[in-house]
Amino acid sequence: MLRICVCVSGGGTNLQAVMDAIDTGKITNAQIVRVISNNRGAYALERAKSRGIDAAAVSPKDYEDRECFNEALLACVDGAEPDLVVLAGFLVVLPPMMIKKYEGRIINIHPSLIPSFCGKGFYGLKVHEAVLARGVKITGATVHFVDEGTDTGPIILQKAVEVLPDDTPRVLQQRVMEQAEWVILPQAIHIIANGLL
After folding, report:
1. Contact 20, 68 (CB under 8 A)
2. In the Cβ-directed half-sphere of 49, how many Cα atoms lie within 13 Å?
3. C-beta atoms surrounding 86 within 10 Å
4. What is the pLDDT, as a whole number, of residue 144?
5. Span 135-160, pLDDT tens digits
6. Nearest-angstrom CA–CA distance, 32 and 128
7. How far apart are alpha carbons 155 and 143 in whole angstroms?
């Protein structure tokens, strides 16, 4: 059974997609053992608690410097003894010591087709704003392994989503989540949990 620790900063819609996929058998041989947020008010923590999943907040505001926060975050992850760390809208730059310790065992969902609209500064709504500003006709989402770079690790899965003429950043964000993110993140976890990669 693959032990998963999910790290999230906000509402937790990708977390919900993973929990639902486990419930319906779309993900097999896996369980979420802990959800961690850098934001005490993140609704993702409530989603986890409602399912009886251990939920923890590790906020940078509670530590005197970044190094102390990084150590606390790593300790919280270590405490879950995860086989896989899933970044599901986690707006924190992971400390190098964590990336090294969990090399090949951290995945991230990114709301574009990497290598487009990724890297430093591209997260959340900013990605979809950039997509619309550039005028591309196809966007999507990518699940990739995390390495020391920003959105540079090996790609596991991608799914394309059409950009429509009347799209606003929020409308496009919702479509990318529904048609791509909530589909390929569970698929990637299932693939890893069952040794299919």
Report:
1. no
2. 9
3. 28
4. 98
5. 999 999 999 999 999 999 999 999 99
6. 29
7. 6
CA proximity to 96, closest of 66, 131, 70, 124: 70
d(CA 168, CA 187): 28
Q: Taking the model in full, what pTM does it have?
A: 0.96
Residues marked as catalytic: 110
What average pLDDT does the segment 166-188 reach? Answer: 98
Q: Are 87 and 12 in contact (CB under 8 A)?
A: no
Q: Are 86 and 5 in contact (CB under 8 A)?
A: yes
Q: Extract the runs of DSSP E, i.e. beta strands, from the chain.
A: 2-8, 30-37, 54-57, 84-87, 106-110, 138-145, 155-162
Q: Which of 174, 172, 184 is nearest to 131 (CA)?
A: 172
**Long-range contact set of residues 147-152: C-beta below 8 Å, sequence gap at least 24:** 147/99, 147/103, 148/96, 148/99, 149/119, 150/93, 150/118, 150/119, 150/120, 151/108, 151/110, 151/114, 151/115, 151/118, 151/119, 151/122, 152/119
For the chain, percent of residues with pLDDT exceeding 90: 99
Q: Report the pLDDT averaged over residues 3-31.
A: 98
Q: Model confidence over 123-139: pLDDT tens digits?
A: 999 999 999 999 999 99
